[in-house]
């Protein structure tokens, strides 16, 4: 015991601290730990103080092993080089939004709190719930990447409640509107879009997915199945869809033309649509499918949904009646 005290005294003499300074630090620490230190004897108190010092040293090491929010954000985007150009564009766009807030870029990633992240989203994403949801998702991904790199230990965005999605019932295209689209696609200037229209109406394929497809690779004509591969899918998940009426198209029309978006817009305009709801053909497919086949599990797989709730809230309608039979037959 005497030897240990001599060693302690020699260490104190070598440090720029006096015995009074050391005693004051111990006293201040003990006061901050009250009432946890109440009733402890000397041995127990020393054990507790050593534990506190050990934790402090560990936390200091963690603070040093971090990077700025700006560095973490751009690094996480670089690691997603294999994602689609549109995805990377969105990531860069939101990162620039975040960095517009003064002081955020230089903040240590490990030091950022939930309230700080919440304020960042509110001030950079505006009042749009859609933008806010996307911004939260991207901010969340930056911290998840930081955890994997050991730049932080927790993800403060996890505690931020995402904006609720207000589900609304989808109104499908009427049979007359479907007929107008198909008749317009028969015209010579739109015939190259005939196959694409069939895939959207009768397979529920999203427009962006159709534009990325390669018929020779993504269609099994023998099995009459359409294969939406992860690199083609909007959500990154693959699915297999029966071709149904799309399989009847003539072989010379089985093409996905270039300038697809412009062609699709012109087809709608020539069919008399001055306004167009996003994914209207996909919604039409789901609505008539649910009414005609009465098989939500199959529809869920064909749509690529993770659960049936979206189908039940959006596409289960009671007014289609015989129209669904006409649509499919």
Task: From the structure above, extract its key features.
single chain; 329 residues; mainly alpha; 56% helix; 3% strand
Short description:
This protein is mostly helical and 329 residues long.
Please provide a written account of the structure.
The protein is mainly alpha-helical. It is built from 16 helices and three strands. Strands 1-2-3 form a three-stranded antiparallel beta sheet. Strand 1 and strand 2 form a beta hairpin. Helix 13 (280-293) crosses helix 16 (322-328). It is elongated.
Shape annotation: elongated
Report strand %.
under 5%
Strand tally:
3
Helices and strands, in N-to-C order? HHHHHHHHHHHEEEHHHHH
Main β-sheet, spatial strand arrangement = 1-2-3
Contiguous helical run count: 16
Largest sheet: 3 strands, antiparallel
What is the structural class? mainly alpha
Rg, alpha carbons: 31 Å
Distance between the termini: 95 Å
Low-confidence stretches: none
Mean pLDDT: 85
Q: Estimate the helix proportion, in percent.
A: 55-70%
Which helices and strands occur, and which strands form pairs?
Elements: H1 2-14, H2 19-33, H3 42-64, H4 69-78, H5 85-99, H6 114-125, H7 129-148, H8 175-185, H9 194-203, H10 207-212, H11 215-218, E1 219-220, E2 225-228, E3 239-242, H12 260-270, H13 280-293, H14 296-303, H15 309-314, H16 322-328
Antiparallel strand pairs: 1-2, 2-3
């Amino acid at each position: 015991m005497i030897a240990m005290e001599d060693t302690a005294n020699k260490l104190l003499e070598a440090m720029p601290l006096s015995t009074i300074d050391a005693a004051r630090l111990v006293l201040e620490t003990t006061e901050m730990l009250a009432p946890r230190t109440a009733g402890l004897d000397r041995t127990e108190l020393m054990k507790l103080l050593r534990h506190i010092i050990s934790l402090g040293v560990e936390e200091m090491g963690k603070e040093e092993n971090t990077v700025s929010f700006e560095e973490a954000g751009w690094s996480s985007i670089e690691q997603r080089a294999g994602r689609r150009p549109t995805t990377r564009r969105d990531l860069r766009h939101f990162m620039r939004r975040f960095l517009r807030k003064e002081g955020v870029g230089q903040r240590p990633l490990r030091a950022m709190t939930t309230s700080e992240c919440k304020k960042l989203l509110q001030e950079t994403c505006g009042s749009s719930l859609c933008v806010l949801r996307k911004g939260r998702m991207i901010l969340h991904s930056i911290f998840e990447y930081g955890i994997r790199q050991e730049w932080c230990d927790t993800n403060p965005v996890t505690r931020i409640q995402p904006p609720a999605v207000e589900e609304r019932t989808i109104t499908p295209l009427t049979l007359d509107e479907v007929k107008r689209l198909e008749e317009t696609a028969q015209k010579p200037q739109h015939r190259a879009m005939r196959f694409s229209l069939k895939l959207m109406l009768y397979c529920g394929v999203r427009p962006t997915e159709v534009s990325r497809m390669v018929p020779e690779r993504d269609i099994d004509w023998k099995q009459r199945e359409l294969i939406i591969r992860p690199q083609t899918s909007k959500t990154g998940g693959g699915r297999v869809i029966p071709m149904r009426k799309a399989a009847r198209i003539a072989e010379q029309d089985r093409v996905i033309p270039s300038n697809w978006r412009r062609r699709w817009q012109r087809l709608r305009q020539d069919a008399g649509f001055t306004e167009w709801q996003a994914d209207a053909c996909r919604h039409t497919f789901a609505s008539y499918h649910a009414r005609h086949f009465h098989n939500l599990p199959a529809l869920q797989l064909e749509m690529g949904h993770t659960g049936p709730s979206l189908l039940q809230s959006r596409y289960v309608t009671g007014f289609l009646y015989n129209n669904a039979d006409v649509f499919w037959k």
